[in-house]
Amino acid sequence: MRRLLVALSVGLMALNATAPVRAQAPAAGPWATPSDAQIKAMLAQRIDAEHSGVGIVVGVIDARGRRIVSYGVRDQADPRPVDGKTIFEIGSMTKVFTSLVLSEMVRSGEVKLDDPVANYLPPGAKVPERGGKQITLVDISTQSSGLPRMPSNFRPKDWDNPYADYDEGQLLKFLAGYSLPRDIGSKYEYSNLAVGLLGDALAHRAGLSYEAMVRQRITEPLKMTSTTITLSPALKARLAQGHDAGLDPAANWDLDSLAGAGALRSDTEDMLTFLGAELGYVKTPLAAAMKAEWSTVRRPTGQPNLSVALAWHITSSPGRDDVVWHNGGTGGYRSFMGFDPKTGVGVVVLTNAATGRGGDDIGMHLLNGAPVVPPLPDPAAGRHAIVLDPKTLDAYVGRYQVAPGAVITVTRDGQRLVAQLPLQPHFTITPESRTDFFYKVVDAQVHFDLPASGPATALTLRQNGVNVLATRVAAP
Predict the structure, then answer these.
(1) Which CATH class is domain 390-473?
(2) 226-229 contact pairs (CB < 8 A, 24+)
(3) What is the pTM of this model?
């Protein structure tokens, strides 16, 4: 089942199914960042030829200044082009802001990296320990706390906006009952839960909400006026519509207690300001904390040439400069930012489609010449869609249990059927017969057991030669 869940996430970075940028050899010798025309051609290829995006904005900053190249539109139903002022959800790039607050608090003497996170939670909060060791702020920021990717009591009321109702009470309840499976600090495991906890703890230390803390300590000093969680009417008017992996419109995500893991929204202009401060082109009192965030602590990730600092990931290649980066993704967006401290080049890529391609490979290519990942084969090749009456689709609607706590939810959205696996966005499944449906975003199919009358009694999820049976269960 795990293989199926991971594959069906379509590589969404950060909030759902995180994975570092694929290890690829960068160009040998000196590398020159491509021209604006070359970048635009890359974006046009991705959107027009490969149909792996709706709108993409790329920003590049170096010693000569900044430049922005964009292609595509805000929505397939909205022809307005995306540009440097278009707002996107930036997902897990938020984690860099959370750890920058941590680094700044360390510089000001408000906290220490090796302080237990429990010190900054509400009185009575219980955080799991192991071997006499407590989880510290640095353990969380370097993704080595021992906490899982997501809490087991994460059961959204609305899977289109899955984080919105997960509050601090649920977070603390999970922590109180969780047993760490390994020693703290012994292994890298990317965790939205952990960094959400870090943001919550630092906000308690600051005596502010997470949003207010980031505004006071980062975005206001840097004059990043478009980077926030709550959008004003003016900012909302600049928000691009998000799209899922099938390029259907996706709902925006709101995060409560886990805001530090991925709640921020921003535009390319602001993110270039942020990278400009990292590279020293924008003067800021945050300069020391910014450098300390990626240079003070580095821990292995278990992957070749990849280490993790305070939130930032660092890719090292023999004979090449290190690249400091992070990426992100929500139900309708993908994002990437990175910089090379030696060449002084920074790159940001923002997209309004949560496709597997995203913009990570484009970002790395612009930074050091790493190859652009070729498109995957069409997973729906050879499939022949048919049309079923919308009322017929109601027979498939329901909840299908794979295992205790693991339920596939099938719903009808107008004239289409969508399926949603635990902790993942929903995806359209397209009929090719009365009982067989297929995904267009990944090579997987669903077969329904449909009696002569009445609703389907079970479904079988097929992928990679594996069949997983899920039987219908009553609604909760």
Answers:
(1) mainly beta
(2) 226/85, 226/87, 226/266, 226/267, 226/269, 226/270, 227/264, 227/265, 227/266, 227/267, 227/270, 227/271, 227/274, 228/264, 228/265, 228/266, 229/255, 229/259, 229/263, 229/264, 229/265
(3) 0.87
